[in-house]
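Weekly modeling sync, notes
Attendees: AB, CL, MP (scribe)

Item 1: holo prediction request
CL wants a bound-state model with uridine-5'-diphosphate before deciding which constructs to order. AB pointed out that an apo prediction alone won't tell us much about the pocket. Agreed to run with the ligand included and paste results into these notes for async review.

Input as submitted:
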Amino acid sequence: MKIEKVLGYDVVASDKEAFLHQLLEDLRAGDQKTVFAINPEKIVTAEENLLVKEMLHEADYLIPDGNGIVYASKKLGGGIRQTITGVDLAQDLCRLAGENHYSVFLYGAKEEVVKGAEEKLKEKYGPVIAGRMNGYEKDDEKIIQAINQSGAQILLVALGSPKQEVWMSRYRGRLEGVKILQGVGGSFDVFAGAVARAPKIFRKLRLEWLYRMIRQPSRIKRNVKLLDFMAMVRQAARKNKKA
Ligand code: UDP
């Protein structure tokens, strides 16, 4: 499994299949691992928020979730050419669970959304979902208990960022049976069909962000961060050249 430094972060540089293979090995070995997604928005946020920065560095695996990371890798002489999106990886983990007799707990999103996601995932991958909890439950003890009692080895957390990363970093030690914790953002909304993925043509042209921005103009602020990110990459590239 290849790891590459991008702007100071250790990012998974293998393709998704190789990474899944690694996760299956981790499951078998019984090691607990966290998988956080990294993208331009989070890297820029981390510059302003030390807590976010620390959390990104604490993750066991950072997946390149967004073409901005591919762009940075190219500019900085790295080899990452493909993204691994949180949505795709989460589905693959459910498939992997089905094939290898593991089970998955879904934590996050609104009750009807997480319920819808559970139904859709069960339709696709069989009885792999061991339990679920919506993301608006205030009692963390209750959540931890539900996860532990479910016996799930894989936990998908959909609270948005950085809330989900904070939650996982804080409580991973209390979830002994859980071996893989993945932060999945708005993925349950996608699984449940509450938010449609961009049409194929947008995905093919790598313009999924543009589609989402048109549908949800409040995302414009996030895309402003993309400009800051490009400036960071250019600066790092200049430094590289001098060195
Ligand atoms: N959410 C939640 N609890 C909260 C805040 C948010 O469960 O206290 C859920 C929200 O319902 C949505 C997801 O977290 O399903 C956030 O999705 P978003 O697309 O904003 O996440 P991103 O990946 O962009 O951070």
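Recorded for review: The beta strands are 3-6, 9-12, 33-38, 61-64, 104-108, 129-133, 154-158, 180-183.
Action items: CL to compare against the apo run; MP to circulate these notes.
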